[in-house]
Every structure is written in C-alpha cells, then in structure tokens.
Amino acid sequence: xxxxxxxxxxxxxxxxxxxxxxxxxxxxxxxxxxxxxxxxxxxxxxxxxxxxxxxxxxxxxxxxxxxxxxxxxxxxxxxxxxxxxxxxxxxxxxxxxxxxxxxxxxxxxxxxxxxxxxxxxxxxxxxxxxxxxxxxxxxxxxxxxxxxxxxxxxxxxxxxxxxxxxxx
Amino acid sequence: xxxxxxxxxxxxxxxxxxxxxxxxxxxxxxxxxxxxxxxxxxxxxxxxxxxxxxxxxxxxxxxxxxxxxxxxxxxxxxxxxxxxxxxxxxxxxxxxxxxxxxxxxxxxxxxxxxxxxxxxxxxxxxxxxxxxxxxxxxxxxxxxxxxxxxxxxxxxxxxxxxxxxxxxxxxxxxxxxxxxxxxxxxxxxxxxxxxxxxxxxxxxxxxxxxxxxxxxxxxxxxxxxxxxxxxxxxxxxxxxxxxxxxxxxxxxxxxxxxxxxxxxxxxxxxxxxxxxxxxxxxxxxxxxxxxxxxxxxxxxxxxxxxxxxxxxxxxxxxxxxxxxxxxxxxxxxxxxxxxxxxxxxxxxxxxxxxxxxxxxxxxxxxxxxxxxxxxxxxxxxxxxxxxxxxxxxxxxxxxxxxxxxxxxxxxxxxxxxxxxxxxxxxxxxxxxxxxxxxxxxxxxxxxxxxxxxxxxxxxxxxxxxxxxxxxxxxxxxxxxxxxxxxxxxxxxxxxxxxxxxxxxxxxxxxxxxxxxxxxxxxxxxxxxxxxxxxxxxxxxxxxxxxxxxxxxxxxxxxxxxxxxxxxxxxxxxxxxxxxxxxxxxxxxxxxxxxxxxxxxxxxxxxxxxxxxxxxxxxxxxxxxxxxxxxxxxxxxxxxxxxxxxxxxxxxxxxxxxxxxxxxxxxxxxxxxxxxxxxxxxxxxxxxx
Lengths: 168, 688
Fold this sequence. Notes:
The structure holds two protein chains of two kinds.
Chain A: H1 4-12, H2 15-21, H3 40-43, H4 60-121, H5 124-133, H6 163-167
Chain B: H1 11-40, H2 42-53, E1 54-59, E2 66-67, E3 73-85, H3 93-104, H4 108-120, E4 126-129, H5 134-143, E5 148-157, H6 165-168, H7 180-184, H8 186-189, E6 194-200, E7 206-213, E8 220-223, H9 227-243, E9 248-254, E10 261-267, H10 288-291, H11 301-311, E11 319-321, E12 326-329, E13 332-335, E14 342-344, H12 345-350, H13 354-364, H14 366-375, E15 393-394, H15 404-409, E16 414-415, H16 418-429, E17 433-434, E18 440-444, E19 450-451, E20 459-460, H17 464-479, E21 496-506, E22 511-524, E23 531-540, H18 547-550, H19 552-565, H20 574-581, H21 584-587, E24 595-596, H22 606-613, H23 643-653, E25 657-661, E26 664-669, E27 682-687
Parallel strand pairs in B: 2-8, 21-24, 25-27
Antiparallel strand pairs in B: 1-6, 2-3, 3-4, 3-5, 6-7, 8-18, 9-10, 9-23, 11-14, 12-13, 15-16, 17-20, 18-19, 21-22, 22-23, 26-27
C-alpha cells in the first residue's frame, strides 16, 4: 500500500539504513540524535502488510467471460479463414491450371513435331530408299496370291454411287 | 456585446477544441485524398492495375492437317524455329550476310540486300529463314550473337516433299493457301487464334484466366490421293518425260465409279516447302493436268466411235472405207499414216486410222457429235477441288466449218484437260455414267465428325450395250497385232485404252509444229475396271514420241501398281500371260503410228485459247500456264551461196530444198530466218 511513509522511506530509507548511512569514522553519541517529534509514532507509523499468504479467489463470472472471449475469437478466426480459403484455394489451383495449360500446349507442339518426324520417315521416298538399301524388289503378278477375304474388289458388276437415286 | 464563443470555456477546454479541430481537418484531408484516389481516379488506377496484373495470351489455332486416303500426313502445322535478326544492331552487314548465308545455305547477295533494305527502313526485326533445319538452328545458336534471335513460330510443313505437290498446294509466308487444296479450301483449313486474359501475380505468373475470344481450330481434310500410287505415278511420269526429252507431262489415276482421284502428277514439279521468291518464275508449279487444255488428238476417237455406236448403224465389224490412205475434202487432200484400203470400225480405233475416224465422224454428223462431246463433259469444268481449272474449248456448232467434223473426230479443233479425259474414260469404264472427279474424300470437323462433300448424281451418257462394245474395241487397241497401244498391256490383267498423238499448235507463228502431245487413256481390267489412267507427255518428237511409245509405258506402270494396291485379282490365265510374254510384243520393231493430222483444223485463235483457259475461278485463281516454248524451225540463209554450199548446208540442218537455176542463190522462199513449217521445202532460185 502506498502511503506517504513508504514513499518517504523509498527516498530516504529506514531508520537503520539511515543510521548506517550516517555511520562515520567518529562514533556518534546518542546526544546527536534528535529528540522524538510529537506523535512521531502516529505520523511515521509504518504498518507492514504481508500479502504472501493472500490467494486470489476464483471468479466464475470472469472465467465465463474469458471463455466466451476465446470461443468468440476462435469463431471469428475460423470465419475469416473460411471466407478467405476459397479465394486462396482458387489462386493456388489457378497456378496449377495455368501450368497444366502451358504443359498441354507444349505437349501438343511436341506431338505435332513427332507426327512430322513420323510422316517424314513413312514417306514413300524414304521407304523406297530403305527398300533399295535392303535390296527389296517388287513382286511379280505371279508372286501375288490373293487369299479369301483379302480382295478389296470383287469381280462383279459395280455401279457408281448414287446411281439408284439417279435412276428414280 | 456578445462574448466570443470560446470565451466561456476554460483554457484547457479551448486547447481541447483546437486539438479536435486539427484532428478533424487532418481526417478531412485523408477522406478527400481517398475520394480522389478511389472515386475520381478509379478508372485510371483500374487500368493501371489491369496492365500490371493482366496480360493477353494468344491461343494457337493451328491450320488443319491434310491427309491422304490412308491417313498419312501430306501437310501438317507444327512449331518451328524461326531465325530472325535485328538489322539495326548488326555492326557489319556484309560479314553478317556471309555468315548467315553460309550457315543457312542461302544466297549471300539476297541476304545482304534484305539486311540493307530493313536497315534503311529502320526495321528492327527481319526473318532470315522461316524454316531452318535442326542443324542450322544449333549452328546459329552456337554463334551467340546478340543481333540474332531464334523464335518459335507455327509453320506449315509438307513431310513428303514433292509428293502430290500440285494437289496439296502450299501456303505463303502468312499461312494463306496459294495453290492446290491449300488454296481451294483455305477458309476451311485456316484456324483463328484465340485470346486469353490471364491474371498474373507480381512475378508475372498467371493464376487465373478468362477466355476473351475462343480459338477456332482449323479443320482437317482427307484427300482421295493414295501416297503410294502417287509416288509411283510421279516416278513413271518423270521417267517418261525425261526419256522422251519432252517439255512436261501429266498423269491422272482415278476410280471410275466414284470419281476419286487416286493420283494426280505433273512434271516438272516442285517442293512446297520451298517458298517462291519474289521475282522468280513459278517453274514447276503449274498444275497442267487441270489448268492446261490441249488438243487431244486420236484419244478423242473414243468419243467419235461411242457416238457412232449409239447414233448410227455402225457396228465394230462395219467396214469403213479408208481410201487407201487418201481422202479429199473440198480442196484439201488428207493422207493417212498408212494406206489402208478399208478397215472394220474396231480396227479404225485399234490402228488409229485418221481417215476412218473422219468417215465415221461424218456419218455421226455435226449436231450429234457436238451433243456427245458435251455429254462426255467436255467444254466445261469438271468441278474438281483444285483452283484455276480450265473448261477447255468446244466451239459452238455455229462456228463449225464444213471440215470441222473431220478435225473434231480426230481430236483437233477442240481442247481438253487431262482431268476431262479421265472423266470421259471413266464413262466407258464404269458402264456409261458421267461421274465427277474429286480429290477431297472428306472434311473433318473439330469434334471428329467427318463430312463428305455432296457430289452430283451420276448421269448416264452411254447405254450399257455401247459401253461393252467400246470396252472390247479399246481392248483391241492393246491386244491386236499392229494396235497402237500394245506397250500399255499390264501383265496379268486385261487392259483397254486408246493412244493419241496430236501436233502442238505454235500460237506465236500460228502453225502446227512437229512437237506432239502424246497421250494414253486406258483402264483395267476390261470386264470390271478398277482404275482409269490418263497420261499425257507434251513436247515429244519423232516416232518415239507417239502416244503408244511415250505415254503407254507410264500407264502400264501406274495402272499395274494401282491394281496391286487395290488388291484386284488377275483376270488373265497364266498360260495366256506366258503366251503374251513371248508373243508379238517382243518382236515388235515398228512403232505404230497414231498421229492425228491437224491439216484439216481451223487453228485456235487467241480468243479461243483464252476461252479454253477460262475466267478466274470462284476463288480468284487464274491459270498460270507456261508460255508455249516450242520453237519453230527457221529457214537458213542461203542468199549469195553456190549450189554446192546450199546443198551441203541444207543436208547438215536437215532441211529439204528445191533448187532452180545456176549460179548463186538470189531468192529463197521462205526467206532467211522466217518460220519453216514442218515438211515444207525451201525453194531457192539461183542466177548468175
């Protein structure tokens, strides 16, 4: 408790401290001490209060209030997260989609390049060159045997497409 | 007197009020600033934010691919490296031109001129090579020069090189079709790039996008062309033209029932991957099979005889008076290549007797002949999907002279294209129907849906009986001893056809030359034809330049390959093949003559030739046909020379002379340097 006495003591110190401060090489005699001031014990009364045994009583209302505050705060945070999460998720997925889109374009280009390489390899000129290298020859008509079901054109009378409609 | 408002307040209260007013003023400034930023400057800052946070990205829409009928690529769009330079940063343009020309295999002077032109125009970007090879790109990259940039662009590549160049066509530097199917179906093949608005973060990485304009992908086209047959056709045509030292040639192979063109070749040809440089002539880029009409000659006798079978009482065995090779029409005398006294009609075709054909034509008559010519599709475009198709020339009846029936019966006074001949040949092959030749099998929409172009319904031109008879007669052209088409016989298959050898008309000198259009039109097998092939070699000379010699071998090779690819079984028994293999063909030494005589013809005028080429087609394409480069022999200069000198010089130059008088040559007709018509002698008058 802040009282004038304690404030003064804080500045000046206790009597013992003062005494010690004023200890000089020459011992002091009691004769130097001031005579007691009237009602000194009243004005300079110091009551020492020992609060070490004091224990704070549990306040149920305050506990409820703090719990409520915590829960409220948590709910607010969750709401904020819930509100911001879709946008953040969209953004992250957007990065992914953009990357995938670029990958898709690149794959399309790669595929076109590979198709081009394949087409060049399969060109008749290239195949003919390879056939010459491998010393392959064209079969003579006598060497070509047509198996059943392998004939694309049958020996029958054929009519141009659309002729039935033209005849009507 | 009223006390001041703050007079009643204490000092502290006054200070508080002043402080409050100051704070309000500060707040007001802040509010005003906010108003200025968010209301007044809203649009400006919004634009700045968008510019900072958004970027427009182009979505590529590549041009549609072109396939052959078996799904092989004929044209494909792909990402290609483009080598470009900044002419403004090149320190030494001559050195740079030499360096680039060396690596990219370009003409050094052309590169230097381009660099100088771009620098003068203050252009900071110049494409040096729009389609370099991988090795060239690596070599350029290794130079590591700051004025060279290798960018990615979309380019059109034709992986088969020259194969089917005239059918597929090519694109220009901007990717627009300029020839062939690329031009004809340009709007269908072209794609439209799309636009994406992409939102980016501070590192310019996109995380959100919005489609500003959806891309329109180019649609794919599948052609009727068979790459394998096309290759064989081009090889055989090239061999035929080179072997005969001819100027050019064309070949068409077609399915007679559907009109699908399985091969269309021209010689000379070109590589569509090579761009035509400004100022250079388009050598080899003309599609002669479609844009260049010519007088067909004896091939046209098929039409004459078809008309005769249906409109007269003539039959294959009907005897035609060939007058021992001489026919007088009016004041003109026509000589046939052989003095036949008389021939059955089937042999008129087999031996290609001109007088026989004239007599048959006369029996048919002008009106009916004209009618059948039109029925067979001559005189107007077939509608094939290639640009600048020529309609050819069929003079209206009112312009036919009395002798025209004779000329037309032999295939003169009329001009046709190779594709029209193929269409006419298909009439005989498919049982008498006129079908439309086409090169597009189907077009493919983005969803994969295939769309076939609707074709006109076939129209009956000949009765079945006439067709069967014509087939038999045309088979005799190939099989009969003395037939003009014996070299067209395909081993293992019955073959039918007709040869043609027509003199080429020199428009500059208005005379018929001794250069020929040698043609062969045929089909196989005879009973159930699977393929029609027309070969024309232009600019042949001599007996070796006749249709049966120059064109028939190319027909044999191409049609034989077509039958093998189509899986058509052989229809000739093995013992007959052996007999034919050892038969007269081996012993043939004499080349059968089928030259149709142009003597009767009323030569085409300039207007006729323009009409034959036709107006620009609906896509604006005009036929680009090379100027007739046939050079007419000129009469040598004999003036002032002795008889001995004149005779020696004439013998050296192969010129026939008729001399009169003695002494020195004073007068000659034709004069020195004047055109010397073929077969005409130079008459020289000598005087002392």
